[in-house]
Amino acid sequence: MSIAEERLVAIEAIKDEDIDYSDAPERDEAFFQKAQLVMPQSVRN
């Protein structure tokens, strides 16, 4: 999946305090032991 560079810039500009996490489930240690970081591909590739 690719994401437009303009969208990445817009996402990065969002302040942490403006993000609503109220509907995000809590994650426990087991989740983070299996988690993998996957970076989006730029449309310039």
Protein described:
The chain is α+β, with helices and mostly antiparallel strands. 31% of the residues lie in helices and 9% in strands. The chain has a two-stranded parallel ribbon with strand order 1-2. The longest helix is centred in the first third of the chain and has 8 residues. It is flat.
Query: What is the arithmetic mean of pLDDT?
Result: 89
The radius of gyration over CA amounts to: 14 Å
Flag low-confidence runs: none
List how many beta strands DSSP finds: 2
**Helix/sheet category:** alpha+beta
Please give a handful of descriptors for the protein shown.
single chain; about 45 residues; alpha+beta; two-stranded parallel sheet; 2 helices; 2 strands; flat
Summarize this entry quickly.
By secondary structure, the chain is an alpha+beta fold.
Any chance you could write out the topology, listing elements then pairs?
Layout (H helix, E strand, L loop, with lengths): L1 E2 L1 H8 L16 H6 L6 E2 L3
Parallel strand pairs: 1-2
